[in-house]
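Section 3.1: Structural characterization of target chains.
Under the original work plan, the team committed to producing a structural model for every single-chain target entering the pipeline before any wet-lab resources were allocated. The record below documents one such target. The sequence was received from the expression subgroup and is listed exactly as submitted; it comprises 258 residues.
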Amino acid sequence: MTVYFIGAGPGAADLITVRGARTLARCQVCLYAGSLVPRDLLAECPPDARLVDTARLDLDQITAEFVAAHEAGHDVARLHSGDPSVFSAVAEQMRRLDAVGVPYDVVPGVPAFAAAAAALKRELTVPTVGQTVILTRIAQQATPMPEGEDLATLGRSGALLVLHLAARYVDRVVGELLPHYGADCPAAVVAMASRPDEVVLRGTLDDIAAQVKAAGVVRTAVIIVGRTLGAEQFRDSHLYSSDRERPHEPCNPQGPAV
């Protein structure tokens, strides 16, 4: 028996990975966050699977579900929105499973920031403009930020910032970043990325907060701030440059021809 932490993707049911869908289809138990994971994904579960919405469960109750499935010999699909590697609360669940000796594995998913970049039709790293992306959030009363990871400190890097869980505090975000990025710095907010009700807002630090308020965006959104969002004049990458030396024979990723 194994607990599989599966990245369900940013919202659209067809953005789950092939591996994620196949794993989901063979698990007898599925735990999912009903407020975030699209219901269409549950159609991938076996018809007789036990479906548990964890929206109102605490960590002890979730762990109890894992243990009960383990004792029954049932594999568990633990669906998380986006990708389990960031802002997913997977680490604390893994720690509980380690403590009780229940095996687990992780199936990555499409993260929200990637879906937001796709909606904006932008590459977040652009030659000579920006090659660093910082994924972060802002301090809230329930979960403070570690020392040195406050927004003002990160903003001094000038790197492109992607902020999760911060749309409700957009005024604060703008206020802390203005001294480092300037009012004309491109900014965007994408809410419900990849879903039918997706909202895409484009602007600058000077006007993005007003747009967010006018659109009524308060959750399920990422804020992106950085010069690469508006980059138009930049050098082509070396990857496809005509000056780059290339092998005479085509590359075969499967190994040498036989």
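DSSP finds seven helices and ten strands in the chain.
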